[in-house]
């Protein structure tokens, strides 16, 4: 669905498969599943409190990122390289191939990274939560608050 110049207040917003242009999000929860449906965010802004909630392939991917990050120095370097791809919007496939998680279908990992890239480059957060916060949570291995749905 396409949304243009709309304001969402205290709503649960599913990003997968939706396009948001010039929208403002106030105190919203963003649900990311990395289903493979494109997420398009252009000129979107976040104000107030924001929360990113991950489910399905996106949740598995983020949990695995944290596990991988803690495993050893080489794996930690690969995850940092993946963060660089997300920040720069560059193709992460070579890095994902080096990571090569057997329990991940490559499409799940690719969809999750694409969803994270869309969020990173499409949202302009003025609130406390950004993808940099997610990266810090992955580094610290403390994902409970990011992954559990809001009560």
Explain the overall architecture.
With 151 residues, the chain is an alpha/beta fold. It has one domain (2-147). Helices cover 46% and strands 22% of the residues. Strands 2-5-8-10 form a four-stranded parallel beta sheet. The chain has a three-stranded parallel beta sheet with strand order 1-4-7. The chain has a three-stranded parallel beta sheet with strand order 3-6-9. The two termini are 26 Å apart.
Strand line-up of the largest beta sheet: 2-5-8-10
What oligomeric assembly is this protein in?
Answer: single chain
Q: Characterize the biggest β-sheet.
A: 4 strands, parallel
The total of helices stands at: 6
The helix/strand class is alpha/beta
Query: How many domain modules?
Result: 1
Number of strands: 10
Strand content is 15-25%
Helical proportion, percent range:
40-55%
Radius of gyration: 15 Å
- Cα end-to-end separation: 26 Å
The secondary-structure element order is EEEEEEEEEHHHHEHH
Topology record:
Layout: E1 2-4, E2 7-9, E3 12-14, E4 19-21, E5 24-26, E6 29-32, E7 40-42, E8 44-47, E9 51-54, H1 56-71, H2 73-88, H3 93-99, H4 106-122, E10 123-125, H5 131-140, H6 144-147
Parallel strand pairs: 1-4, 2-5, 3-6, 4-7, 5-8, 6-9, 8-10
Question: TL;DR of this structure?
Answer:
By secondary structure, the chain is of the alpha/beta class. The protein has six helices and ten strands. The strands form three sheets. It has a four-stranded parallel beta sheet. A three-stranded parallel beta sheet has the order 1-4-7. A three-stranded parallel beta sheet has the order 3-6-9.
